[in-house]
Amino acid sequence: MSEKLLKGGEYLIKKTDADDVFTPEDFNDEQKQIAETTDQFVMNEIVPHIEEIDHQNFDIVIEGMKKCGELGLLMIDAPEEYGGLELDKATSMLVAEKLAPGGSFLVAYAAHTGIGMLPLIYYGTKEQKEKYLEKLMTGEMLAAYCLTEPGSGSDALGAKASAVLSDDGKYYLLNGTKQWITNAGFADLFTVFAKVDKEHFTAFLVERDFEGISFGAEEKKMGIKGSSTRQVNFDNAKVPVENVLGEIGKGHKIAFNVLNVGRFKLAAATTGACKDALGEAVRYANERKQFGTEISNFGAIKEKLARMTAETFASESLVYRLAGLLDGKIDRIDKGIENYYEEYQKAIEEYAVECGISKVFCSEVLAYVVDETVQIFGGYGYSQEYPAERFYRDERINRIFEGTNEINRLLTPGILLKKTMKGELPLQKEAMKAMESLMTPSFDEPEEGLFAKELKILEDLKTVFLVTAGAAVQKHMEKMKDEQEILMALADVAIGIFAIESTVLRALKIYDKSNEKKKKLLEAAVNVFLFHEVEDITRAAKKAAYFVEEGDNLTMLLSGIRRFTKYDAAGLLENQRLLADAVIDAEKYIF
């Protein structure tokens, strides 16, 4: 990786060199070995039992988690001083991706190693880590995270659960109900959020067998049926004072910082699920015959497979670019400092925008890929006898948990605006420059070179974002945070730009090292993805313009959007067919 590292959100105003992005092609031998180990584990130990897991045979899940512990897959993020591996985020995301074919098992794994263990790792005392961490790393204990309540979902700080100190000062007595708690049916340790004296939002480490804890029945969910989801009830539950996690009244830091990690891990997991679904879809298309030939020979099916492949390539490119940003920032922290994990969290928080983007974009790519998988299966896609039906049910939750996609969309421009107001990101100055370019006719000759037109449209789209965002802020000023429809439209532009840039830079970086066939496939994937993504960004930008302006100002803004969203997608049909034929021949994701 280069020494150059953009700050969070800077991708909108600065150029990134292809050599400065991390891609899957950069994995080292250790990462490849861990990926292979994970792949073998899930294919041999989990996939054969998916039906039983979906019927809530949690013994298989628990046994699988213990085997993960034996393989070292539960200690990837744990510190070395407590016996963990403390590997980079790219490896952590790679394991999440490789576990995706395990369906609901991945939900249990992700909850345990992510929101289950990370609060303890980041905020636990030495004594707390010594007591619990080794058992969590081996799978002897399994973890869960209790934040959501029946009356508070996205509004986490609106929680009603309370905690009061006992008369003898030895315990906090917890009262309240937590809902939608993953792993609740078998978890041994819960990170629970409650308000001390109904005021100070605080986290607690709560063991399953503490007095005063009870559990609701398993929720009857639409998908991820093989994951345990229950209510957890606290009735004067006795929690020793030494099990307060972090500081009294600082629970919000734990809650929100850990969610950033959950978001980018979910992005990696959904990318893996895209690859799994695409493989099933193309194998079925090669087997299913209609009108005397395999349906994979039909142009209508090839078009689907091509776009599924291109979108998955974009998702994968975005995920590992983010991994590189996070690892680059974390690597700059001195591990010897006393407040290492405080600085570690700041490093992750720096890319809160990109974490939210990854969650939204990758979960929605999976939604598209799975929907088309069901369509390719046709009537059989609606039958539980075939995997497409489970993919469809399981996919839907990804747009809800780890912060709904609406919340993450609102966070994207919201954080960018805060950074601007703090002077951390010069968006206002860049917006003024963008407006000048909007008003100035261009006589530039078309640039030449590899992916030249894609790099040109990328810069033009950044201009579109800056102009529309600038117009919105100028109109609404400090009230901008309340204009949710505008914020969400701007978010779609910003999300699309990050996805396009990640895709193009990856293709640029690996192009010269690729053989002629792969070069053509890279060109095809970029072309197919950009055609659709530029159209989506254009629509979002126009919507923002109509929301913000009227009269002559609206006419000028729309004219600028038209001018700066022109992408020459020549060769689209040929590229679609090239991508489709390659994936049909391979019967799997080809990059």
From TrEMBL:
It catalyses: a 2,3-saturated acyl-CoA + A = a 2,3-dehydroacyl-CoA + AH2. Residues 461-563 form the Acyl-CoA dehydrogenase-like C-terminal domain. One of its GO terms (molecular function) is short-chain fatty acyl-CoA dehydrogenase activity. Residues 144-236 form the Acyl-CoA oxidase/dehydrogenase middle domain. Residues 249-410 form the Acyl-CoA dehydrogenase/oxidase C-terminal domain. The keyword Zinc does not apply. Keywords: FAD, Flavoprotein, Oxidoreductase. Signal peptide: none annotated. InterPro entries: Acyl-CoA-dh-like_C, Acyl-CoA_DH_CS, Acyl-CoA_Oxase/DH_mid-dom, Acyl-CoA_Oxase/DH_mid-dom_sf, AcylCo_DH-like_C, AcylCo_DH/oxidase_C, AcylCoA_DH/ox_N, AcylCoA_DH/ox_N_sf. It is an enzyme of class 1 (oxidoreductase). Its cofactor is FAD. Residues 28-140 form the Acyl-CoA dehydrogenase/oxidase N-terminal domain. Its EC number is 1.3.8.1. It comes from the Bacteria. Coiled coil: none annotated. Belongs to the acyl-CoA dehydrogenase family. This is Butyryl-CoA dehydrogenase.
